[in-house]
Amino acid sequence: MKIATYNINGINGRLPVLLRWLKEESPDIVCLQELKAPQERFPIKAINDAGYQAVWHGEKSWNGVAVLSKYEITEVTRELPGDKEDSHSRYLEVIINQILICCLYLPNGNPYPGPKFEYKMAWIKRLMKRAKALLKMEVPVIIIGDFNIIPTEQDVYKPEKYVENALFRIEARKAFKQLIGQGWMDSIRTLFKDQEVYTFWDYFRNAYGRNAGLRLDHILLSPIIAPRLSEGGIDRHVRGWEKSSDHAPVWIMLDDKK
């Protein structure tokens, strides 16, 4: 089973790119972020015509997450526990083929310092609490999406440029490390231990052409499902398509026999 995450950066404006990628790569499950569309403007007909069911949590102008699947989807929740006042569309939990999938779009946090960074760190704390609770359930869980965190210096083309950036602040990196320390597997880094792998390239200064990238999109596996990981990768070439997102799709393959 092929599971992917893709920050689409505007689903309606980049729908042709998404549909082309779905046709070429045929993932079984796709988690999308930054829909940038209200609930009623999600292109469900085009998604259905491409062979996918969908559950989505839209938001006007910003944010928004969705899960596409070739299989039946059961929605669990679209709220990350811990803050009833948080109205941002950033989280979606679903069950597909007996796997609990948590699709997220973690706050960017810039500029640092400031309220946006404080919101980011509070959101991470809520995520860590939820992640810990999910592990106690002892069921297969995947936490997947755009984390807006560069975990280590290995995950950014010029670490020195990002020291004061919320994506790379030491507080965010420590929190990500603590999250992994709960028992989650960072699947892409596990597969590409010492290799340069990026998932995001800015639109400015020919970042994609220079491979001046960042690794922001992650797929974390709970201990029960981690042994099923067989392969994975980044569809870097999609970033080079016309009118593409500044992120590339990231995917893993799970061995169903395990």
Automatic annotation (TrEMBL):
<protein>
    <submittedName>
        <fullName>Exodeoxyribonuclease III</fullName>
    </submittedName>
</protein>
<dbReference type="GO" id="GO:0003677">
    <property type="term" value="F:DNA binding"/>
</dbReference>
<feature type="site" description="Transition state stabilizer">
    <location>
        <position position="148"/>
    </location>
</feature>
<feature type="domain" description="Endonuclease/exonuclease/phosphatase">
    <location>
        <begin position="4"/>
        <end position="247"/>
    </location>
</feature>
<feature type="binding site">
    <location>
        <position position="247"/>
    </location>
    <ligand>
        <name>Mg(2+)</name>
    </ligand>
</feature>
<keyword id="KW-0479">Metal-binding</keyword>
<feature type="binding site">
    <location>
        <position position="146"/>
    </location>
    <ligand>
        <name>Mg(2+)</name>
    </ligand>
</feature>
<dbReference type="InterPro" id="IPR037493">
    <property type="entry name" value="ExoIII-like"/>
</dbReference>
<feature type="site" description="Important for catalytic activity">
    <location>
        <position position="217"/>
    </location>
</feature>
<feature type="binding site">
    <location>
        <position position="34"/>
    </location>
    <ligand>
        <name>Mg(2+)</name>
    </ligand>
</feature>
<feature type="binding site">
    <location>
        <position position="7"/>
    </location>
    <ligand>
        <name>Mg(2+)</name>
    </ligand>
</feature>
<feature type="active site">
    <location>
        <position position="105"/>
    </location>
</feature>
<keyword id="KW-0464">Manganese</keyword>
<comment type="similarity">
    <text>Belongs to the DNA repair enzymes AP/ExoA family.</text>
</comment>
<dbReference type="GO" id="GO:0008311">
    <property type="term" value="F:double-stranded DNA 3'-5' DNA exonuclease activity"/>
</dbReference>
<dbReference type="GO" id="GO:0004519">
    <property type="term" value="F:endonuclease activity"/>
</dbReference>
<dbReference type="InterPro" id="IPR020847">
    <property type="entry name" value="AP_endonuclease_F1_BS"/>
</dbReference>
<dbReference type="InterPro" id="IPR005135">
    <property type="entry name" value="Endo/exonuclease/phosphatase"/>
</dbReference>
<feature type="binding site">
    <location>
        <position position="148"/>
    </location>
    <ligand>
        <name>Mg(2+)</name>
    </ligand>
</feature>
<feature type="active site" description="Proton donor/acceptor">
    <location>
        <position position="146"/>
    </location>
</feature>
<dbReference type="InterPro" id="IPR004808">
    <property type="entry name" value="AP_endonuc_1"/>
</dbReference>
<dbReference type="Pfam" id="PF03372">
    <property type="entry name" value="Exo_endo_phos"/>
</dbReference>
<feature type="site" description="Interaction with DNA substrate">
    <location>
        <position position="247"/>
    </location>
</feature>
<keyword id="KW-0378">Hydrolase</keyword>
<dbReference type="InterPro" id="IPR036691">
    <property type="entry name" value="Endo/exonu/phosph_ase_sf"/>
</dbReference>
<dbReference type="GO" id="GO:0046872">
    <property type="term" value="F:metal ion binding"/>
</dbReference>
<keyword id="KW-0460">Magnesium</keyword>
<feature type="active site" description="Proton acceptor">
    <location>
        <position position="247"/>
    </location>
</feature>
<dbReference type="InterPro" id="IPR020848">
    <property type="entry name" value="AP_endonuclease_F1_CS"/>
</dbReference>
<feature type="binding site">
    <location>
        <position position="246"/>
    </location>
    <ligand>
        <name>Mg(2+)</name>
    </ligand>
</feature>
<dbReference type="GO" id="GO:0006281">
    <property type="term" value="P:DNA repair"/>
</dbReference>
